[in-house]
Amino acid sequence: MSKADRLDKLRHKLGFYLSSIWDMVLPSFVFEQKRQKLRQVFASLTPAEQQELLDRVNYYNQVKQPFKVSDAADLIGQFSREGKNSSYFFDFKSLLRFYPLDYRVDYVFGDVVHIPEVPSFVKSRPISEDNQNSVILKLDSVRHYYTVPDNKAFADKKSKLVWRGDAHQSYRLDFVQQFYDHPLCDVGDVGKRSQGKPWFGSYLTVEEQLQCKYVLSMEGYDVATNLKWIMASNSLCFMRKPRFETWFMEGRLIPGVHYVLLKDDHSDFEEKINYYEQHPEEAEQIIGNAQAYMEQFYKKDQELLVSLLVMNRYFHLSGQRADDSL
């Protein structure tokens, strides 16, 4: 990793943690003032824009019936950092500050690939028709929403498919073992267990990966961390149909509109590269759609507004709040 890359990531993380710590020391009345401001933000939107935000709320929180929190639910007033990943803690705590200390919450931190038994706040959930108990919030945001400027046009990039990552999962390892020496690929496993193997790949920064026209996004334990920076770039995202989703609403991404769909074993990448080499205008249309999709996540006030509406519904249906309005 270059010095510039390390400094950029350090600035990104430092900004997140300083902002989070500042939230910890602010008095409670400040959060009521913030809520008042968000009401004004919502009122200033057009009806179509308001409905778009409410559609996101409905997507993240699909609980329909009243419920009771579990006996193990945490009191907001007793929610502490002890034993918790700091990025999850700070993201969640910054939202809990808007609510009374005697409210109770169920949550599951980490890469969640199961459906909780009771409605719980999570970062990720399986994409299915029966995941109502998984209430999504924007957690671990410092890791998952890191993007870099991409000033290189699609046409000026190398006609290769790039991927770097730790190939813990069998489908990741199978891919790099099979295609590490393919002339259209620059892929490799950066994990220690592959050191000395021909498919071991040296670390590439995001900027270095974006020198290629095509970037592969492969899910890890849950979602693929690189998906957001790919879709924010001038490169074309290749991936199989996602199995898991987060605040990014991976389940709403449309093949051929936001990304290029690959077979489950990723084996048709050469066919797809050859197609988009012959049809670059279609590639650039998909890239433009992906960038437009990303725009909704850059609006800080609206992101917070949606988060609070998601939580309001949770507290209302669990009998802790009179209504779910902002």
Question: What does this entry look like structurally?
Answer:
This protein has 326 residues and is an alpha/beta fold. 40% of the residues lie in helices and 12% in strands. The protein has 11 helices and 12 strands. The strands form 4 sheets. A 5-stranded parallel sheet has the order 8-7-9-10-12. A 3-stranded parallel sheet has the order 3-4-6, with no helix packed on it. A two-stranded antiparallel sheet has the order 1-2. Strand 7, helix 6 and strand 8 form a beta-alpha-beta unit. Helix 1 (3-25) runs parallel beside helix 4 (86-96).
Overall pLDDT level: 95
What's the count of strands? 12
| Helical segment count | 11
Low-confidence stretches: none
Structural class: alpha/beta
Roughly how many Å apart are the termini?
44 Å
Please give the share of residues in helix.
40-55%
As a percent range, the share of strand residues is 5-15%
Taken from the alpha-carbon principal axes, the silhouette is: globular
Give a short account of the largest sheet: 5 strands, parallel
Spatial arrangement of strands, main beta sheet = 8-7-9-10-12
Element order, helices and strands? Answer: HHHEHEEEEEHEHEHEHEEEHHH
Total individual domains: 2
Gyration radius, in Å: 21 Å
